[in-house]
Specification:
heterodimer; A: mainly alpha; 9 helices; globular; B: alpha+beta; 3-stranded antiparallel β-sheet; 4 helices; disordered N terminus
């Protein structure tokens, strides 16, 4: 059964189709939520909220390919996470100070495993982590992030540069640790 | 693979998207999650918000409706009182009076003599309108007695056995300044003219504080006012 048929049946209210879609995408969506909220229990609740809204709004969704469907589902999850974070985090008080001059070597991330990258991102402070997720991973512009979080564009840029600086430090530390382990 | 850029499957972003659990961590159970989700999807739409709106609307209606009803009740009472006094034809000849007329108090004792009072409630004030009658002349005692209020005639049904007590409501009355020579005329027409008691008036002189009493002589035909002066010191 492909995704388009499952979506058709889910639109008609088929619980079996809905369960199949849930079972297929729940694990990945919970990891997406954990990148934003860190706490696994909160991430699970947000994932369920996301799926609830997804199935409620499924009638207005027009299937245009598996990638588009996945992107729409992921966007629903991210919106739930941002709503949760906005309630708990004052994004407006994030500083706009310029970070140190240390650029992130994104090519170095390609050498790391997915779980290592995940752990590094989760270690970032909530402001750095959120903006890094939205800009570096989701591909949103600083203007879009500023509008979404209610912050200035400058704040978004400064937070991203600080996130990249911190990640680079972690990469270097990982490299050193890897080198030390290798010599041992 | 559900990537936007399928050729970049090795890109760290796409690998991150494929991550469904962390190594060393227990994979979370999905059945309990699905049960929660399924129950939420089967729930009826929330009507709490609608209930709040209905409650607020009911409170508003009460706040607006109660004063409105009380005002309407007052208006209805006024209308009822006016309706009681219906204009109608009367076969009895009456003395129409205009405006507010105050008559002499009830003095007759015959059955047929009754004074009738009618209440006329106007918006400005409550006034008792009396039908002006002459003393010792019987009031027409039929089932309906016309009463004039503000130049209109109204019929009021009364029970002949009842005695209506008349009390004079003092309408705001200006004291009339009269000349001393006119005093005798007023006295003749006053209620005391036929009584045995003699009216007594006190006057004060301008020079001293002692008051003088003068008594109207009843028997004299000459309209002379006799003044009895206080004893001089």
């Amino acid at each position: 059964m492909n995704i388009s048929e499952l979506i058709k049946e889910a639109k008609q209210g088929s619980a079996a189709a809905q369960k199949y879609l849930f079972d297929h995408f729940a694990d990945k969506m919970i990891m997406v939520c954990r990148r934003y909220v860190k706490n696994p229990e909160d991430a699970e609740e947000l994932m369920l909220d996301g799926f609830y809204k997804f199935f409620k709004n499924l009638r207005s969704f027009n299937y245009q390919g598996d990638a588009a469907f996945y992107a729409w589902l992921k966007k629903t999850m991210i919106n739930e996470c941002l709503m949760f974070l906005r309630k708990r985090t004052m994004f407006t008080i994030m500083s706009e100070t310029v970070a140190e001059e240390l650029t992130l070597q994104e090519e170095a991330l390609n050498n790391l495993s997915a779980d290592e990258i995940f752990k590094m991102i989760v270690r970032l402070p909530v402001g750095y982590r959120t903006i890094f997720n939205l800009h570096a991973i989701e591909g949103m512009s600083h203007a879009e992030i500023a509008a979404l979080l209610g912050i200035a564009e400058g704040t978004s840029k400064s937070q991203l540069s600080k996130a990249k600086t911190l990640l680079q430090k972690m990469l270097l530390q990982n490299k050193n640790d890897y080198a030390i382990r290798k010599t041992q | 693979m559900l990537y936007e850029k399928p050729n970049e499957s090795l890109h760290w972003k796409n690998r991150l998207d494929d991550l469904d659990h962390l190594p060393g961590e227990q994979i979370p159970e999905k059945n309990s999650g699905w049960k929660k989700l399924h129950n939420r999807l089967q729930e009826k739409p929330r009507i709490k918000i609608i209930r709040w709106y209905l409650t607020a609307a009911a409170c508003l209606l009460l706040i607006v409706g109660i004063p409105w009803l009380t005002i309407n009740e007052k208006d209805n009472n006024l209308a009822k009182n006016r309706a009681q006094l219906k204009p109608g034809n009367s076969s009895i000849t009456t003395i129409p009076s205009t405006g507010n007329t105050i008559i002499s108090p009830l003095q007759t004792q015959t059955e047929n003599k009754l004074s009738v009072t009618a209440k006329a409630k106007t918006k400005q004030q409550y006034q008792r309108v009396y039908k002006s009658i002459e003393i010792d002349k019987p009031v027409v005692n039929k089932s309906k007695v016309p009463i004039s209020i503000n130049s209109e005639l109204y019929n009021i049904s009364i029970n002949p056995d009842t005695i209506a007590f008349v009390t004079a409501v003092p309408v705001k009355k200006k004291l009339r300044v009269v000349h001393i020579n006119e005093l005798n005329k007023l006295v003749e027409h006053s209620q005391f003219a036929r009584s045995n008691t003699l009216p007594a008036f006190r006057i004060k002189s301008l020079n001293d504080d002692a008051s003088s009493v003068f008594v109207v002589s009843r028997n004299s035909s000459d309209n002379i006012i006799k003044i009895k002066l206080p004893p001089s010191n």
